[in-house]
Amino acid sequence: MTDYITLLKENDLKATIQRTSILKSIDHAGHINIDDIYEDVRELHPTLSLATIYKNIILMQEHNVIVEVPMNGEKSKFELKKDDHIHLICQGCGEIQDTDITQKTQEALVIENFQLSSSQINLYGFCQKCQSR
Questions:
Q1: Which of 4, 82, 115, 121 has CB atoms 3.0–4.6 Å from 23's, for a disulfide?
Q2: Residue 103, H or E segment
Q3: Which domain range does residue 24 map to?
């Protein structure tokens, strides 16, 4: 289990109930959009507004606690910040699979006259279940 309070403090953010609840929701889902975060968090904190969720999502992105995962034709999803990896995003069901970046992938990403500091690679296609439908 992730220690959300330490995670926030290590990234220079105050550990509030709102932030820890948002992180717990994201961590539990793996990848989740803001509407689903809002519904999830409101179960425990019914007075929490959508504006508060947005404000905290933006702040935690700026402090590298969470990462936005763009979705084609849908609202972005969010995940806890992890080591660089590739997202395999199904265009049928919307499921996101994380896969590690291999040495071969890293070598392919070397670009002349450009120093890469981090990456987010999103590959869109169809998962095994959607392919067999």
A1: 4
A2: helix 103-108
A3: 4-79
